[in-house]
Write a structure and sequence with these properties.
This protein is mainly beta and about 325 residues long. The chain is built from two helices and 19 strands.
Length: about 325
């Protein structure tokens, strides 16, 4: 009886060991299966499938991350850039120094387009072109798109372009100030006829005494006489700090100021008998000063000239000096270079 009980107990122990070993084997197998599955699904090396003709080909991959924008018509960024391009219409007028229209002038232009700083979108960044002025000097730039128009040059044999200080760029894209094209009010551009006689130039130094007589100077080779009259307003007994001024006129002619940003072309209107300029005592600065002025005159017979003055003033003495340069065009043209 005792031996029978021991045999049953031994059988039960073996049975439990078998179950434990089987359980452990199953757990280990599942563990390694999970590891192999994870490694296969996250491997960087692509797996290949056999194509119907027996060659290995890479499988299709489903990319869920955001790709780098590429140059195609469906790119959102590209469409956003293109919306900044506007229709461009521009009307210009080419004239010479006498205000007459110039025919056949070659007008070169550049159009800056949206995407100029984003070449990766494959957009056209510059549109260059050429047009020519008509019989009445008019030229047009139409049926174009872009943000900014630049008139780069205007050329014609026998003429020279005068740019002056005016801007040559015109905004058509986004911004608070946009160019408003008007065929009845074209933008003017100036060419100088180089076949005409060049202006005569005369430079000289003048000495003045305050409150004395006028000083007159005749331009060589012409009948032009320029008159300088100095003035001073100093309180009695004052040794320094007085108002001074200079009045300039042209005998048998008229005179006016030339704006610093204007091209060196005589204006058609705005002339008067004389121009007077100076410095007040209350103005800040040293007693000694230099005052520059650029003036234009027109003679009675319709000829033009320019006067450049550099007046040196010492408000503590009774005399002063000036360096004067005169440009006179005897041909009647308004160019004063």
């Amino acid at each position: 009886m005792y031996m029978l009980v021991l045999t049953q107990i031994n059988t039960m122990i073996k049975s439990r060991r078998t179950k434990v070993v089987a359980t452990v084997i199953v757990i280990v197998g599942v563990f390694w299966a999970l590891i192999f599955y994870y490694m296969a699904s996250h491997s960087s090396s692509p797996t290949y499938q056999t194509s119907p003709i027996g060659h290995s080909s890479p499988p299709e991959r489903n990319v869920t991350s955001n790709p780098i924008p590429v140059a195609d018509n469906n790119t959102t960024q590209k469409r956003m850039l293109l919306q900044y391009n506007s229709n461009i219409q521009f009307y210009g007028l080419v004239i010479d120094q006498n205000g007459k229209p110039v025919k056949g002038a070659k007008v070169s232009y550049n159009i800056q387009m949206a995407g100029d700083l984003q070449p990766q979108f494959g957009l056209q960044r510059k549109d260059k072109g050429v047009v020519y002025s008509s019989d009445n000097g008019i030229f047009q730039i139409r049926n174009k798109k872009g943000m900014y128009l630049d008139i780069s040059s205007i050329e014609l044999d026998g003429y020279r372009e005068v740019r002056g200080g005016a801007a040559r760029g015109y905004n058509f894209g986004s911004g608070s100030v946009q160019h408003a094209a008007d065929p009845n009010r074209p933008v003017g551009f100036l060419l100088i006829d180089t076949t005409t006689q060049k202006p005569l130039v005369k430079s000289f130094k003048l000495a003045f005494v305050w409150d004395a007589k006028a000083v007159s100077v005749r331009v060589d080779g012409s009948d032009v006489v320029i008159v300088f009259v100095p003035y001073r307003d100093r309180p009695p007994g004052a040794l320094r700090g007085f108002d001074w001024s200079m009045e300039i006129s042209v005998q048998q002619g008229e005179i006016c100021r030339l704006a610093p940003e204007s091209p060196l072309i005589a204006p058609i209107e705005g002339y008067r008998s004389s121009v007077r300029y100076g410095v007040l005592a209350k103005e800040p600065g040293m007693p000694k000063s230099i005052r520059q002025e650029s003036l234009v005159f027109r003679t009675k017979d319709g000829k033009y000239g320019r006067i450049m003055t550099n007046l040196y003033v010492d408000r503590e003495i009774d005399s002063t000096a000036a360096y004067v340069t005169v440009y006179f065009n005897p041909s009647g043209g308004r160019n004063l270079e």
